Amino acid sequence: MVRISIRSLDLMLSEELIRRVRQVPTRLHALATLMARDGLWRRTSPRGMLVIAQTLAKRAMNPTLIYKIHAANNPNHPALIWRGTAYRYAEIDAYMDAVACWLNARGIARGDRAMLFMRNRPEYIVVQGATTRAGCGSVNASWRSTPAELLYLLTNSRAKAVFFEASQIATIDAVRPSCPWVEQWVSLDESNDNVVSYESILLGGGDYAIAKGSDEDAAVFIYTSGTTGKPKGAVRKFPRDAVFGAMQFIAATPMSCNDVHLVTCPLYHSTAFGFSSLTQLLGGSVVIMDEFRPEVFLELVAKHRVTTTALVPTMLHRILALGSEVLRRYDTSSLRVIFTGGAPLPGPLGQAVMDHFGDVLFNFYGATEVGLVTLATPDDLRQEPTTIGRVVPGNEVRLLDDSGKPVPQGQVGELFVRNSTLVEGYHDDSSATEASMREGFFSVGDLARCDHQGRYFIEGRTRDMIISGGVNVYPAEVEGALERHPAVAEVAVVGVPDREWGERVRAFVVLRTDAELSADDLKVWCKSQLAGAKVPRDFVFLDALPRNPTGKVLKRELRELGV
After folding, report:
1. pLDDT tens digits, one per residue of 347-379
2. Which CATH number fits domain 464-560: 3.40.50.300, 3.30.300.30, 3.10.180.10, 3.20.20.100?
3. What is the SS3 string spanning 27-89?
4. Hey, which of 181, 193, 494, 501 has its CA 20 to 30 A from 522?
C-alpha cells in the first residue's frame, strides 16, 4: 500500500487547489446543516430535481437558477412582496426570462452592461437577475444621483441600457445627450417615442436558455460609496464557489427557508441585495420597503410577521428614538434576526436594541469588495458590545502591519480577506486593485485587532488613523469612549492638522434630546477613559452627523468643516 502524506500532497498540488480541497469538509457541513435544520429537502419536488439535474448536465451554474428551481419546487410561494402585492417565484422567473431575451435580442449580451437607476421595487430584483442570466453586467446606481454623478457612472461603466423610473426622468433627460453609447432607455412606468416600455418587454415573454459559462461573464458593478473621493466600480462575478460561501454564512445564522425578510436599505447597496439574495437562496419571501422610515419599519414587521431584516446602525438609532410609547404599539415578536453592519455599531446602541427586541441582534463585518467576513452573535455582543465577531467559515483573515507582516494577537493591523466572493477588482482601475491586494487577500482599508477568543474589533480605517505627536490614535477607540457617555447620541472623531503635534484629535458630537453638556465636561470624561494623546483637543456639537444614503459617516466633510 502506498501512503502519501498531506505534506507530499501539498507539494504536488497547487496552493489554490489545496485551499479548495481543505474547504470541502466545511462546505459539506454547511450544506448538511441547512438541509437538516431548515427542511429544504422536503421542498424539493421531482420537477425541481429535474431542473437541478439539467443544470448540472449543462454546467450552466448561473446564480439565477435558484429562481428556476424554486419556480419548479414551489411556484406559488411569494418571492417578493411590495406595497401589498405578492409576486410568486414562478412570476419572477418568467419576468427574468423575458428581460434576458429582450436584452440579447437588442444585442446586449455577454460582456455588455445595463444600468439600474431606480428606487427599491420588484423590478430591481428582476432586471438584475435578468442581466446575470444573460451573462451581462448590471450597474447599480443610486436613485439619488445627480446628473453629474450619473454621467460619471455611465461614462465609467459604458452601460448600453438604462432601466429607470418616472421620478428620475429629469436626471435622465439631463445626461442622455452626453451618452451616445447607451442604446436602450427603458422606463418602468410610462412609454413614449424616446423610451422603451418595461411592460412591453414583459409582454414579449420568452424562455431563456441559460448557457454554460454565463456565470463567468455575468457581474454586478457596485460603485463604492465614495466617502473619500470618486466612487470606484467594484466588479463582483459569480464563481461556483460563491454559492458555498453563501451557504456557510447562512449556516452560521438562524436563517430558515420559512423566513420573511424585510429589505430596508437601498437595493443598490450590497447589504440590501446580499441579504435578500440569501433569503431567496433558501426559498423565503422578501418584503421590499421603498425607503426607510422608522415607524413604517415597525408597521411592516407587524403586518407581514417579518422574521429577519438588515439595518445599518443609524437606522437602529432612529427606530429607538421613536420612544417606548410608539415602540410598544407594534408586535415585533416575530423577529428572530436583526443583522446590522455597514458602519461601526456603538456598544450602548446594540445593548439598547437587544433590551427592546430581545437577543436577536447579529453584527457582521463585510464590504462590497469582500462580502460577508465575520459575524457576532447576541452572546458575543452581550460580552463584548463593539465586536464584529468571529470569522465565518469560508473566509481567511490576516491582520498585517505596514510592511505586510502579521501583527501579534491583540495589536492593530490592516484587515485583509480571502474568500470565494472577492470582487474581481475595480473597473478600469488596476492601480487601485493592486494597492488593495496582498498575495490574493483583499483589503478595503479597515484596521482591526483580534482578542484571545478569536473575536475581531474594528479600530478605524488606514486613511482615518490619527498620528498625534508620534502616537497612533484609532478613532474607534475615542468614539467608543464618548459613546459611553449617557448624554451622547452619536459621535465621529477625525484628525485635523496641527502645527505642533502634526495632527490633533477633533470630536464631532450629537447630544441626546434635551441633554446639556459642554466641551469641558466631555474633556473631563475622556481623560477618565483615555490616555492623554487620545483625548480630543476640540469638541464640535452638531445637530446630526453627515452621512451617505447607506448610513456611513462622511468624515471627509467633517475634516473640511471650517471650525
Report:
1. 999 999 999 999 999 999 998 888 899 999 999
2. 3.30.300.30
3. HHHHHHHHHHHHCHHHHCCHHHHHHHHHHHHHCCCCCCHHHHHHHHHCCCCEEEEECCEEEEH
4. 501
